[in-house]
Design goal:
mainly alpha
Length: 313
């Protein structure tokens, strides 16, 4: 899962508060460096499934601590925020908090393929929110949404086994929450990675304030602390740092396509480490949803190029 690229500078245009270009390039061309950076970010994001499934702590504890660790690691970027009240911060933080909580619980109840696929229904929710905000339906952008909904139906048609039904429902709620986060982060006009830090710190604080019983630090083993540290530092913080660094070298459209390696790799790591085999419904639904996401990216790219004076994001 990643923050939207909206509001990021175009390739080759560094912005204050972002990692410097020379720090990541290592003598490579901007395009090559950008591709490798996106793939590195997707790799870290994709490890979330196997890491979350390996922990035996309560989901609330995992979600809260992972968020706090990631928020602290990314906290230097908070200096780039323009601190002013904006009501849109409330659904932004609420959406992110719902995402981390629901996804953490979902991936432990259902397969990694189902969980990550249902979270990737976020573009459909963003489409619905845009329709409500603009009071019109951009039918030219509807075909990808139809594919995403078809994939969603495929996964939900899978016969429930154990807690998989509840897990799929929680993953769908995570997709809705992530759609809300994506919708508002694109409209705040702030540095996205700084908003990611703010949302993580807020999410951890909110979860432990609402559920103080989840604050069980004394009962956490060192091995679990190591996994939690990896989730916060590696999976979230480094994943976003690599991705935002890549956006200075390659177009956001290309970066978004390459970042789809995340949902493809996530169930692979879970299978290799834990032997979890995705169901036929999950694999088919994941393929259809990813097809919808790809179609959405390319359709928006085509519409952008068709507008006079527009440039690819």
């Amino acid at each position: 899962m990643r923050a939207t690229s909206a509001g990021q500078p175009s390739a080759g245009q560094p912005s204050a508060g972002q990692p410097s270009a020379g720090l990541w390039s290592a003598g490579l061309s901007p395009t090559s460096a950008g591709i490798l950076l996106v793939l590195a970010g997707a790799f870290f994001w994709s490890t979330g499934g196997v890491a979350l499934k390996s922990l035996t702590l309560p989901s609330l504890t995992i979600a809260g601590l992972r968020a706090l660790i990631a928020g602290l690691v990314l906290s230097p970027f908070l200096t780039r925020l323009v601190w002013r009240w904006d009501w849109r911060l409330l659904p932004l933080v609420g959406g992110y908090t719902g995402t981390v909580l629901c996804f953490t619980a979902a991936i432990r109840l259902t397969t990694a393929a189902d969980a990550i696929a249902l979270v990737y229904t976020a573009p459909a929710w963003v489409f619905a929110l845009n329709c409500l905000a603009e009071r019109r339906v951009p039918w030219r952008l509807f075909p990808p949404v139809a594919l995403i909904l078809a994939g969603l139906g495929t996964i939900l048609a899978e016969p429930a086994q154990g807690g998989s039904g509840l897990g799929n429902l929680l993953a769908l709620m995570a997709g809705l929450a992530f759609g809300v986060f994506t919708f508002y982060v694109a409209r705040l006009g702030q540095l996205p990675i700084a908003l990611v830090s703010l949302c993580n710190l807020s999410a951890g604080t909110i979860l432990f304030a609402c559920f103080p019983a989840a604050w069980v630090l004394a009962r956490i083993a060192w091995s679990d602390w190591a996994v939690l540290a990896f989730l916060g530092v590696g999976q979230i913080a480094l994943g976003h740092l690599f991705f935002t660094a890549a956006l200075k070298r390659i177009p956001a459209t290309q970066a978004s396509m390459l970042a789809l390696a995340e949902p493809l790799l996530n169930p692979v790591w879970v299978f290799l480490a834990l032997g979890e085999v995705p169901s036929a419904y999950g694999l088919a639904g994941l393929a259809v949803i990813l097809g919808g996401v790809c179609a959405d990216v390319w359709l928006r790219r085509g519409l952008s190029r068709a507008l006079p004076g527009s440039a690819e994001a």
